[in-house]
Specification:
globular, single chain, alpha+beta, 116 residues, 35% strand
Length: 116
């Protein structure tokens, strides 16, 4: 997607962020990159909000979505195609931001109540 903001075009790419599993899939959530840098993911801090026992997401990798991407049957994992969407490890800076978000959640309990 290209956005024209004050006559400056910006490329925004959809990606999938999570961890690579044993089936060569990235399982996680949708995210976005701007100027080829991870910008944000869709705000999820728990992996599945419908589980009885909530647990935090566990991200360290992302891959770009492309037309014709293949997905797992449950649509929760992007299947990696070595010719189209190789996974990218999050940078130290990205991992530090991610750690701060989880640290703040552990302190404030915005998502998962303290008594769970």
């Amino acid at each position: 997607m290209r956005v024209d903001a004050e006559l400056q075009l910006v490329d925004i790419y959809i990606l999938f962020i999570g961890k690579v599993n044993e089936n060569n899939q990235i399982c996680g959530h949708l995210g976005y990159a701007i100027h080829d840098k991870l910008y944000y993911w869709n705000g999820h801090l728990v992996s599945n909000k419908y589980d009885n026992k909530l647990k935090y997401v566990d991200f360290d990798t992302y891959s770009y979505d492309y037309i014709g991407s293949q997905w797992s049957k449950d649509m929760q994992c992007l299947i990696i195609d070595k010719n189209k969407n190789l996974p990218h490890k999050m940078t130290n800076k990205e991992m530090n931001i991610y750690a701060k978000i989880l640290e703040r959640e552990n302190l404030k309990h915005y998502i998962i109540p303290n008594d769970l």
